[in-house]
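Supplementary Note 3. Input sequence used for the single-chain structure prediction.
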Amino acid sequence: MLKPTLTSRHAAGITAVLGLLSLFPPLATDTYLSALGDIAEAMNATSSATELSLSVFFLGLCVGQLIIGPLIDSHGRKGPLLGATALFVVTSVALPLVKHIEVFNVLRFLQALGACGGMVVGRAVVNDLYEGREAAKVMTVLVMLLTIGPIVSPILGSLLLEAYGWRSNFVVMILVGLLALVLSLFIVPETLAPQNRIAAPFRTGSRTAVKLLRQRDFIVPTLIAGLVQGGMFAFITGSSGVFQGVFNLGPLAYAGVFAGIATALLVFGKVNTRLLDHFSARQILKTGLPCYVAFALILTLLSGTRELWVFIPPLWLAIGMVGLLSANAMALSMGAARHSAGIGSAVLGAIQFGIAFTVSSSVALGGSDSPLPMALGLLLPASAALLLSLRAKAV
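The predicted structure, written as discrete structure tokens, is reproduced below.
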């Protein structure tokens, strides 16, 4: 339930700002997918080294959350949020100015450290203000807002690439980052009272993290959330090679297909908010995971096709299940970590993006001659999530 000191209008404003902050990761990945070839050419780099900037970014998101999580339990939510957002802006300024792919990838790692702030703080703030199904609903709203990035970013990135070149993508990141910084300063409140903050954040945080990792009602939905979202990162990493290489789409057509598939997250997120009026997050996960595996299996079986209209429907449904399942799993995780929201959010996010890094790297190494690596990047994590839920019986 909503804290009584917060008006509904202010709550909506906070959710909107947290949603804007959550756009940083997709904005920093999806806008420049169609420009990877141009970046490789500009820096005289191989395509593999350039694609590595995606995996490095996911790794930075993983590491960054382990850093910011303890800080927000010790210093409050707002200060670390503003610092992380400022880091995102500064690195976004530097990235289009460098000329070597090695420096570019290091800056991408640092950019990810800044980008993760909004995600960690967002989950912690939701946990501070809401409980139960209301928390799941707000988390779903954030996931739905997050989908604006994958829907808009590829098209925007392709248009900017055609008109102004690949560096213009980073100008958009700078402008969005500055807007989020100002709005965070004036709209997002401090939701952690001084008396509830911890001393020695990293020492205390590490002990708390170990306790959470041993806690079944936390670790099971956390792993499920990471495995479910792994499919989205398989799609992000493999989509350029599949649609532009295998299906021979141009940059703008690819961006349109990518955006169309990403709308599944929005549609299924809306379905989830309706389902939460009648079912618990646990019930939705239990029923939805087999459906996710089924759609991913169909996609894998069709990965030999060269007909785009055959390949897209199962991919759309599989990606949609990510939007339906991930918010519920995250709400269950954060509910189990209610009294250690910062650390809980950090561990949740680190595991998610640790899995994302593994899946993304595997898809990249699998090559882009066939849709099969991307399809397996959805099927294998989805199957692992289903087996985990059946074995643990905690979801």
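Residues 216-246 form the longest helix (31 residues). The CA atoms of residues 62 and 353 lie 5 Å apart.
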